[in-house]
Amino acid sequence: MGWRPFLLLPRVSVLARRGEVQACGSEGSKWASIFQEFHRTTGLGLGAKGAWEQLAIALNQARVDGEGGEELGDGLETIPTAGQGPGLLSTQELQEVSAYLQSACSCTLHPLHHLVSSLAEAYNVSYGGVRSHPVLLPHAMAELASITTRLYQAIRGLFPGLPAPDTPARLETTGGDQVTLTPSSLLHPILLPPLHPTVFTMFALREARQDGVYWERILRWNKHPDSTLLTFLEVDPVFHLPSPRTRDAHFLPAIHTLQQLKTTFTPAQKLVVVGDMFRAVTGSREGVVWSMDTLLPVCMYVVVRARLLQLGAELAMLQELMEEWLFQGEQGIMLTTLLAAYHQMIRESLFID
Q: What is the Cα–Cα distance from 125 to 148, expressed in whole angstroms?
């Protein structure tokens, strides 16, 4: 096969590289009425205490108007203690704030649910359906960044302990690891699920040509048994099992793990899948010294057998949505290897001799 290793750096956006997301141009002023309604309902101009009191009134009124059709979710009837005081949050407080936001955005009675739902609807109408086109992708990404920052600023009115949007905070866990808190890390799990179909469609359209080349190889190469495919990809013979006529017999845990990429929405979640896939590969053989020469062909085999549609679009979206701090250490190496495997595949001959 004769592959040549090369380094692929992630296409992290300029906004992410600066460590902040700033609303610029028209994106910073769009959907102002949606945010104004949320500010009016919650009384965010009254300070944190006044905002929580106003929010309690709004929740009670919503419950009365709804004639008891839905109850408030867990923890929504009391004011959270996390994120209310000065000083850096602990990881436990961050978990409590995240849990509250998830619960609030899932409860149709809560003003946060109405805010996020209205923003998602406006965004999807603007960029989805017949309007979807790759030329709109830069504008859509800028608007997503603007929405994320403006929503974070609104939430800081309820949780003043959250750091400023342009000041990423690094929180240390009890195990000594670090968690980075930014507007994106806090709000992507809430915003991206309803926006994912719209955003992904634009990436899929932009990456359609390369993904077409990739998928043609996936379909043709999957017709061959493992012995032929492993030899073509130059996988080290030490990994070959004595079943020459079978398919999908090697590295099954890694294949099943990579297939979960389609079930995730945020860059952090997707990177966990990528990391778990590589750990499933390297953990499958004891005593093997893994180098790029050894790992890349195995990664290509896993990608072929995983049969992931539009993998190029998935990787492009991951690169452009992820923040720079995510592309560090082991995660960065693993993502670079997967990117190298994808690009090496589309450079290879379609036909296996």
A: 18
